[in-house]
Amino acid sequence: MADSLPALAFLGAGSMGGAILRGVVASGIRVDGGITATNRTPEKAAAFADLDGVTSIALSEAADGNADAVSEARIVLIGVKPAMVPDLLREIGPHLADDAIVLSLAAGVTLQTFADNLGADVRVIRSMPNTPSTVGKGVTGLAAGAAASAEDLALVHSLFETVGAVVEVPESQIDALSTISGSGPAYVYLLIEELTKAAVGMGFSETDARTMVEQTFIGATALLDASGEEPSELRRRVTSPKGTTERAVAVLQEAHLERTFADAAAAALARAKELAAGA
Fold first, then answer.
1. Mean pLDDT computed over every residue of the chain
2. 53 and 152 in a common domain
3. Strand 75-78 vs strand 54-58: parallel, antiparallel, or unpaired?
4. What is the total count of domains within the chain?
5. Structural domain of residue 140, as residue ranges?
6. Is 120 helix (H, G, I), strand (E, B) or coil?
7. What catalytic activity is recorded (predicted)?
8. What is the 8-class DSSP label of residue 77?
């Protein structure tokens, strides 16, 4: 991770933009020029007003807030809802610095949309963070536009490292990445739900079932992270020959999980393509 970041502007510091903003502040990384955040209402702006080094603007009270925010920023994060992006880009375009990096948090909005509204020479990078970014354990996919340099990408990479891991992909892979790291937390929560139901079915209270299952998932992933071992090796160590786990894993494998997960990811990708086409 870099020692410092240049001035940042968060336009629409909602749940994901706000998580990244807080992650930057919590990391302690130096931000040369500070951080400006804009939100529509004073109530939303108040959520960031007390953060060290952050200027929080309510657009209802400062009509030129977005223009003022981007004029002083090197990295401009677009965190508004996807449908609002084109209008926002046209609003801020004349006020961007020549070396500004425009960073999209808007799902489904293509680099071409940014080029159409800002000009092809503006440096744009698409990002796809996931919800564990809110606790510093995220995965973010990055896809750089043609005008973005290697240095621009490295700066944005450092920004997202404050909230987790970063994967750089071509834009053609962003939707596929979203089916794995973007949707993936939902798959994990589903597994936790179903194993909890199994525990309750074996006579455990809801409270004890949740404790056993949730802490097992948290502990297993923490061990995977700390050990540096392959998941298959850690699974082997739990699975004694002719033991109880071996019998259980055999049942799971008979369910063809490999095909199920591949089919699930394919279904998510097909839906992403439908959404991109306006369906």
1. 95
2. yes
3. unpaired
4. 2
5. 4-170
6. coil
7. L-proline + NADP(+) = (S)-1-pyrroline-5-carboxylate + NADPH + 2 H(+); L-proline + NAD(+) = (S)-1-pyrroline-5-carboxylate + NADH + 2 H(+)
8. E
